[in-house]
Amino acid sequence: MSVIVTYAPTEPSDADVNDVYYNQLVSVIQSVPTHDILAILGDFNAAAGPPSDMSRAFGHYSSGSLNDNSERLRSLCDMHDLTILGTWFRRLDIRRMTWLSHDGFTKKEIDHILTRHRDKGQFQSCRVYRDAEAPANTDHMLLGTELYISLQKLKKSQTTPKQLNVASLINDPALQAQYNITIQNKFTVLGPLSNDVDTAWNSFSSTVTEAAVETVGTRIHIRKPWLSATASTIIDQKAAARKRGDHAERNRLQRAFKTRAKEDHEAFITRTVEEVEEGIKSNHLGPAFKAIKVLTGNKPTQVMSFVNKVDGSPCTSLEETLHRWHEHFTAAHLITHRVLRVPIWTRKRTPLRGTLIPQ
Predict the structure, then answer these.
(1) Which secondary-structure segment (H or E) carries 115?
(2) Does residue 157 fall inside a structural domain?
(3) Which of 166, 236, 241, 243 fits as disulfide partner to 249, beta carbons 3.0 to 4.6 Å?
(4) pLDDT tens digits for 70-116?
């Protein structure tokens, strides 16, 4: 939002003074970004004049008589698609007139708030506050408005940076040597770093990232992580053969892929087990949990059932569990309640004298 506070020359001023003032005001308005909400607060020493349907500069509730300052104000609004905010709100004169003469009778509306026509809907009111106290002795009333700005939530960028293929750099010694040579050459060309911490870090980070992208490359998402680069190359060749319509070559590549994928899977399992064993020896369980996650995949785990069937075997599904509960409550409902007669042995007591004992 941009706010401009201004004071226009009075009506008796020379035309040259008015021209200089409005030219300066126009240059300031043009410097405001188009996406900003513009509000021009000022004593323009000009009435809006009677309403008219020929211009969008004012609404149906404008007032006052036209003069030279009024014509200049209207031309300014029409030229830059501005509108006089107070002319769009119906108000009593006590809430409209911004200037009161010392004679106590002359009143005019010469203080205005201007805004772009597209933004006038965001202003909810525009009125004079007669009870407000001003720090200076003035015959002008305080003019205020209420602005409601709806803040929009910024959308997060959908594009995520691609991750580097760090696994290939760790497992390939030749690639490691090539990466070292590339990054040394780049730092040699870069020269000494800047004394500023932020500038030096940006230069260092961008150099390392560029060397990694050129040498290592980005990571390609593969559903089966044990497939080697050779197997991926066979997949690409098989797809190219399918597009060419060479079914014999595609079948040959399919057999070669199955053989290579089996070897890669066995090597992957062996390597994973070795990593888990090394981690357990050093009391590090991270590789074990990682191996379990990779080998089991993203399949949902079945919830252990603590409900057994009639034969004693556990229920393996929700349907079997519900059926077993149904059998249990049905059998419990059909059980006949037997009344157990427990004999109560009582000891005959000797009655006191004078007490009647019923026969």
Answers:
(1) strand 111-116
(2) no
(3) 241
(4) 888 888 888 888 988 888 888 888 888 888 888 878 888 888 889 99
120-143: b or e for each residue (b if 16 or more CB lie within 10 Å)?
A: beebeebbbeeeeeeeeeeeebeb
Within a domain: residue 81?
A: yes
Strands 111-116 and 38-43: antiparallel
Whole-Å CA distances, 251 to 239, 246, 256, 259, 347: 11, 9, 9, 13, 100
Distance CA 219, CA 233 (A): 15
Tell me: do 11 and 100 sit in the same domain.
Answer: yes
| Same domain for 87 and 57 | yes
Question: Which CATH number does the domain housing residue 22 bear?
Answer: 3.60.10.10
**Residue 209 sits in the same domain as residue 239:** no
> Rounded to whole angstroms, what are the CA distances from 12 to 16, 67, 217?
12, 11, 75
Q: Is residue 352 part of a domain?
A: no
Residue 157 CA to residue 154 CA, distance in Å, equals 9
Range of the domain at 137: 2-147
Distances (CA, A) of 85 to 6, 122, 318: 16, 11, 68
The 10s digit of each residue's pLDDT in 313-349 is: 888 888 888 888 888 888 876 654 444 444 544 444 5
Residue 237 within any structural domain of the chain: yes
Do 14 and 41 touch, CB atoms closer than 8 A?
A: no
What is the model's pLDDT at position 158? Answer: 62
